[in-house]
Design brief:
The structure is a homodimer. By secondary structure, chain A is an alpha+beta fold. The first copy, chain A, is built from eight helices and 14 strands. In chain A, about 55% of the residues are buried. At the A-B interface, helix 1, strand 1, strand 2, helix 2 and strand 5 of A face helix 1, strand 1, strand 2, helix 2 and strand 5 of B.
Amino acid sequence: MSHITLAHGNGGRFMRELIEDVFARHLKNPLLDIKADATTLPADSLNGDIMITTDGFTVQPLEFPGGDIGSLAIHGTVNDLSVAGAKAKYLSLNVIIEEGLELAVLERIVVSLGKAAVEAGVHIVAGDTKVVPRGEGSGVYLATTGIGIKDPTLDLGMHRIQTGDAILVSGPVGDHGIAVMLAREQFGLKGDIQSDNANVYPLTQSLLHLHGLRFMRDPTRGGLATVLNEIHTCSGFGIRAHESSIPIREPVVSVCEILGYNPLYLACEGRVVTVIDNAQAGQALGIWRSLEQGKDAAIIGHVSSSDSRVILQTELGGERYLEELEDDPLPRIC
Amino acid sequence: MSHITLAHGNGGRFMRELIEDVFARHLKNPLLDIKADATTLPADSLNGDIMITTDGFTVQPLEFPGGDIGSLAIHGTVNDLSVAGAKAKYLSLNVIIEEGLELAVLERIVVSLGKAAVEAGVHIVAGDTKVVPRGEGSGVYLATTGIGIKDPTLDLGMHRIQTGDAILVSGPVGDHGIAVMLAREQFGLKGDIQSDNANVYPLTQSLLHLHGLRFMRDPTRGGLATVLNEIHTCSGFGIRAHESSIPIREPVVSVCEILGYNPLYLACEGRVVTVIDNAQAGQALGIWRSLEQGKDAAIIGHVSSSDSRVILQTELGGERYLEELEDDPLPRIC
């Protein structure tokens, strides 16, 4: 059979074969037991605070320049643990497949997912597949839940943010959103923009020893502007960002100008926004810039006591508010 | 707004309000922090082996006699931990909503999910929502990942099964499959069959002190016949079951006769199949029958050294093979 049928989800022979031939084969690791109802996590691997997070993935198209829904499903969840200061260790994987999906496409996605898991050093330890009828899905949806370990003495969070703190971003914003949008070919635009889809653990881990580190978040849905609004809402402080400091690639700027998007609201899938004591901001920037993944990092603004909102200082010296996102500029990007 | 829009999934204000007003409100517990990227599990609650499992839910219709996709998403994952000998403690929740879903329906499902979680003593500690365009979902899909704790000295599994062991089922089979099928009204049949959708922890926990307990599994997709085939395949032993001993409700038998279904292949969502040393089978049966949930429990067969397949002894004295399921009698029942 070259395509998924409803029988691949019925608990019988076809489902067993799909799980053995596609999922177990490419996601193989010592802890993945496809015949067990539940798996025991090795106790000696769980020293520290145990953290959990979860994320769903419905991106369209399933494959795009720089990644696919499989690698995204690993990075999205690994990154949520990483920005919380944890090291991702174990993942569960849910797969909801639409009847009629080409098996070859599913296999490419699972191979990519397995490769991203190995590179991030995480084991897939539990999984489930469901098949929904044609017209009630869009190829495949994924959901991953991650378990990670954090140093119990590490305290990161909105509550640590103080006025005067610096805000850093680890690289150009908007690449993922524009790469996925161009892959849809709905606007007749072409470009060679790659998604920034990546494991950010090397970036987050590199800053954990800095005592002035307050808070980290990956700017996915809603982009950088949404993270800045979340910081403002949760901390109660204002934020002043400098438009000219925010790294954005030239082709992303061009596409945004043509289509009327604001790149600050577009999703990244491999960037980190960090709030850090201003006294250590230069040191953090140096560390990031020494990493390939952080070579375009920048200090983009500061937490401010004199502002009461998120304010963007424009290149011409003007000011405008970065509001909380209302309508959806680019749906289905993750 | 009375219906879900794509903007409810975009990371902005509508999504925040949906999460606050529907999910956080009904799933509230001290560990659920909707503003955090990841949550720390309290270390003092994790004494024992830490187990993990995951399950996806795509049942149609979303609501049916005896339950809905919300309570099912709790029980399905809690039950997988329970039959592994663990006590479920924490759950993550993924929600994939179709644009156009009535908010009132979503809220009923979340309320039911929250109620089932409280009753099962589990906390929802991480969540994610996505919205997919109209026609690319079917109302709502759920996925839950569960974390549970098991006594490290407890050893359950296929590897412990021996010839001569007894096989028990905790109650009538096929109720869930038929209840969901009748709720679709596609055959013009009516009936008052309720799904058996329930938390099986009271059943599994009641047997854990029996040293002869070998293995437990909940017969969901593929039903009792599929569990018997899994036991046969994994243990290498034959199985002899007695048709007259298998509890099936009369209305389930009637509907199956009309539509040509075999109830042994239909899903249960609140039953347990147990393999136990024959010397303790009577004791286990007594324990189960003393519980409301297990009052119709029965010893349905034995692990056999003289058979090489799963054999059903019929009421008239004949024999037939219970084969591994191939085609799908009733898709989308969980």
